[in-house]
Amino acid sequence: MSLPYFDASAVRAAAPWMTAVQALERALLDGVDPEEDSPRLFSPAPGGEFLLMPASGRRYSGIKALTVAPGNPARGLEKIQGVYVLFESETLAPVAVMDGTELTAIRTPATTLLAVKHILAAAPGGAPTAPRVVVFGAGVQALNHVRAAHAVLPGASLAVVGRRPERVQSMITKLAAEGIRVDPAGVTDVPDADIVLCTTSSRTPLFDGGLVAPGAVVAAVGQHGLGAREVDAGLVLRSDVVVEGRASALREAGDLIPARRAEEWEGIRPANLRDLVSGELKRSPGKPCLYAGVGMAWEDLVTAAVVYERGTRS
Predict the structure, then answer these.
(1) Cα distances (Å, whole numbers) of residue 179 to 17, 126, 182, 296
(2) pLDDT for 266-291, tens place per residue?
(3) What's residue 1's pLDDT?
């Protein structure tokens, strides 16, 4: 038998935002431990590099194989492309292949909004009923973070900050056609935001961390690697901090390591996603909360299993 293949549209149809968020939440409550996740593997490739992300689970296991080609955008091609191969854990027999790029485009915002939802719920005064959300970025991840925020945070007002006004306007127009209202914004809107989502490829801080309001939530998820950062050390030091996984953060969260040494973070032991959904986060009154995400293989596996069990093969 040939393996079923789920293309980008099939992946998207099988994992709407709330389905993806709930699947990730359920996996964490059912025993998935981010600290046991496999580290991602990098290997040189012509014109870029390979990125391999394996993960194991009780029922399914899988691996995402991506290529990163920095020169592709100039050719009108995607910088990151790849596939996901899903296996049955008991026999290690492959059961499906699916579009890995679209899988990433879903699981990243779903994980971010899962974290934001629980961080808001842990606020001393409770979550705002109509939060003001400011998204930095105008690429695919920014677009999908807006879509996910619209689904997970009904009643939220949405605004986008980007370096290129034409890309911001294109994004606003595209979302308007989907029934999602988004306004253009700037750094000056940060102090009024309840939630700031950083989804860019910037390697330097996007704004002065002192602008963030007490009690606000900031998610920095657009970059990984110890040389990259979307927020400054000032924000890190004045915030409660939540990470996807402590080990993965020490390996790749450049937003955190310059602010404190690895040994300090090991002593602080910030809450990870499992702690967060289990209700173990205790937020400090008057402090922002920073969520730092780098992307983890267990999230791909959970989402791929949803696609396989709910989706229609291409």
Answers:
(1) 15, 28, 10, 31
(2) 999 999 999 999 999 999 999 999 99
(3) 63
Label residue 77 by pLDDT band (50, 70, 90).
Answer: confident
**pLDDT value of position 219:** 98
189-245 pLDDT, tens per residue? 999 999 999 999 888 999 999 999 999 999 999 887 777 889 999 999 999 999 999
The domain that holds 292 is classified in CATH as: 3.40.50.720
Q: Do 162 and 249 belong together in one domain?
A: yes
Residue 30: CATH number of its domain: 3.30.1780.10
Same domain as 228, residue 192: yes
> In this structure, are 73 and 156 located in the same domain?
no
Write out pLDDT tens, residues 132-183: 999 999 989 999 999 999 999 999 999 999 999 999 999 999 999 999 999 9
- Shared-domain flag, residues 257 and 229: yes
Q: Domain span at residue 269?
A: 106-296
For residue 187, give the nearest of 234, 231, 150, 123 by alpha carbon.
231
| Total domains, the chain | 2
